[in-house]
Amino acid sequence: AGETSGHMFLADEYYGFDDAIYAAARLLRILSNTDQTLGQLLSDVPKYHAMPEMRLPSSETDKHAIVQKVLDHFRQRHEVIDVDGARILFPGGWGLVRASTNAPEVVVRAEGQTEEELGKITAEMFGFLKSLGFDFKQMLPRP
User: Fold this and answer.
1) CA–CA distance, 80 with 74 (Å, rounded to integer)
2) Cα distance between residue 71 and residue 58, in whole Å
3) How far apart are the C-alpha atoms of 16 and 19, rounded to whole Å?
4) DSSP states along 16-72
5) 134 by DSSP, 3-state: which?
């Protein structure tokens, strides 16, 4: 599994590891077993346009209610996965609104297959969050 921060977790051959040197060694092993370059190996991997992870300050109790409102709203028009918040599946990408596990805030992310799709997704998500009374000047990119 990988994160946008570059953090990788590998657990297919032994106990799970989330070590950068181990991940690099695994990549080198993959490259040593092929005649393709890294660029060639990655050429079929879909490329997405992503917004920076954003956080909306909230109280510890309100953040869960916010996620529930997002779930209720978007389930009316999109498929939504509720494993870790509300992952909304749009035709050209996805958006995520979830309660932070370690801070009084709501985390917002989105990816689109194109910049245009990302714009549509974020407009719909932010439009709904704004209707709940949130001021997007308070939203800060995650460092």
Assistant:
1) 7
2) 17
3) 9
4) -B--HHHHHHHHHHHHHT-SS-HHHHHTTS---EEPPPEEEE--HHHHHHHHHHHHH
5) coil
- Helix, strand, coil percentages (3-state) for the chain, rounded to 5, are 35, 25, 40
Whose tokens are 């109280």? That residue is 59
* Each residue's pLDDT tens digit, 28-72: 999 999 999 999 999 998 889 999 988 888 999 899 999 999 999
**Token code pair at residue 94:** 């996805």
What amino acid is encoded at 62 in this protein?
A: D
- Taking the C-alpha atoms of residue 9 and residue 20, their distance in angstroms, rounded to an integer, is 9
The CA distances from residue 63 to 29, 55, 132, in Å, are 43, 11, 12
Q: Can you give the pTM of this predicted structure?
A: 0.77
**Structural domains in the chain?**
1-45 (no CATH), 49-141 (3.30.310.50)
For residue 68 the two structure tokens come to 């529930």
Any bridge partners for residue 49, and if so which?
Answer: 112
Backbone φ, ψ for residue 48 (5° rounding): -115, 155
